[in-house]
Write a structure and sequence with these properties.
The chain is mostly helical. Helix content is 76%, strand content 0%. Helix 1 packs parallel to helix 7, helix 1 (20-42) packs across helix 10 (268-304) and helix 12 packs antiparallel against helix 13. The two termini are 41 Å apart. The model is unreliable at 1-6 and 394-401 (pLDDT under 50).
């Protein structure tokens, strides 16, 4: 298959899995995600955290259609590979300029405009490839006719905001995000995407999450260490590692394979709809939560490098990233579980909101103590979820049935 270089795209089989080329593409994409940490870590304020969330959402929901492309045709063959390389270059440009996203420059194309134009190129490549693939696929062409409208409309406030700068940029980019995501969700509700390979689709999302966890941990551990007491630096690094292991365990140990099996058991005509809801609404926020936790760990380590500040309270911004990110991850995990396995327990909801309950306490603690408290909480939640998983291991006939959509 790798030697095929024909003009026509190569359809994937039902058992198709993620290719090495797609993993390479996703590495560049996750690099852009981790650059959002660099942007937020520069001046961590409430506004910066919100702007970082906006950037994460724009990136995540621009990556999603590439998953569908790779689920329809081979992404590592012929012209589809060439187009994906163009998109990869655009995402790399986004990553390079991302830390200066809200910094207006004197040149003709400053960082905000470069990001907006590169983003448009990435989305345009998606549309061109998808419309090319749909020439022999009338249902896909019908879906794209609705999907293309909000995607293109979102480009105008995106470019306009980059030219305007400041608060206007934030407002217009928020409008662009709402038009893009909201319109695409409405379009897919009327014309669901086709899902050819469940294994490829679920594996692709899982790989991006695990790369994000790994890259985020590297990013959080890349700060200066010259002024930090050795014992404090090592303790913070180990606590950050333990927290990340818990986040990995909570998704990959049992939930991910169970969700893949559940999506595969859905009737073929509804499979794309269910997968789009579960992985679009429930899975992407998992990555966002992991990014914010990494930001919080990085700020803890930064504080430990300041001899006069490592005993002072962590503060609201860093605590919000650390504890709020954990809460987003845990709550998104339950949304994902609900949309795939169709069951959650009230005690799981209580466990998921505990980071928010402990946020004021974490804000008042010294940085290392705040990180230790969160780590203990995540270890406890992981242990609790292991018990809940065993409770759910019962005959298939005893599980609740997924309701049919009207």
């Amino acid at each position: 298959m790798r030697g095929i270089s024909g003009v026509r795209p190569v359809p994937v089989a039902e058992g198709h899995r993620t290719t090495m080329f797609e993993i390479f593409f996703d590495l560049v994409f996750v690099f852009a995600l981790t650059r959002v940490i660099t942007f937020m870590a520069g001046t961590p304020t409430a506004l910066t955290l919100a702007q970082g969330l906006l950037l994460l959402l724009l990136l995540l929901y621009s990556w999603g259609p590439y998953t569908w492309v790779g689920n329809l045709v081979r992404a590592d063959v012929g012209l589809v590979r060439a187009a994906t390389l163009v998109a990869m270059a655009a995402i790399f440009v986004v990553a390079l300029v991302l830390p200066d996203t809200w910094t207006q420059g004197a040149g003709l194309v400053d960082a905000p405009l470069a990001l907006a134009l590169a983003y448009v190129v990435g989305r345009a490549v998606q549309l061109v490839v998808l419309f090319w693939v749909s020439t022999t696929d009338p249902p896909l062409r019908s879906t794209l006719r609705l999907f293309v409208v909000p995607v293109v409309l979102a480009w105008f406030p995106l470019i306009g905001g980059a030219l305007l700068g400041g608060a206007g940029q934030t407002a217009l980019w928020t409008v662009a995000l709402l038009v893009d995501i909201g319109g695409a969700r409405i379009a897919s509700a009327f014309r669901p995407w086709q899902l050819r390979s469940v294994g490829h689709f679920t594996e692709r999302f899982g790989l991006v999450l695990i790369i994000a966890l790994g890259e985020s941990l590297i990013s959080a551990g890349a700060g200066p260490r010259t002024m930090a007491p050795v014992s404090a630096a090592v303790a913070a690094a180990l606590l950050g590692l333990a927290s990340t292991v818990c986040l990995w365990w909570l998704y990959f140990d049992r939930l991910a394979p169970a969700a893949r099996e559940a999506v595969g058991s859905v009737p073929e005509d509804r499979r794309g709809d269910v997968a789009g809801d579960a992985y679009g609404l429930g899975h992407s926020p998992l990555i966002i939560g992991a990014i914010y936790v990494a930001l919080g760990i990085e700020k803890v380590i930064d504080r430990l490098t300041e001899e006069s500040a490592h005993a002072e309270p962590l503060g609201w911004e860093a605590a919000t990233a650390l504890y709020g990110g954990a809460a987003v991850y845990l709550l998104s995990r339950l949304v994902f579980r609900r949309l795939t396995l169709w069951t959650i327990h009230p005690t799981q909801v209580v466990a998921a909101v505990l980071p928010l309950v402990l946020l004021p306490a974490g804000r008042s603690l010294p940085p290392l103590a705040a990180l230790a408290l969160l780590t203990v909480l995540l270890v406890g939640v992981t242990w609790f979820e292991r018990r809940m998983d065993r409770r759910d291991e019962r005959p298939e006939s005893a599980r609740p049935l997924r309701p049919e959509k009207p």
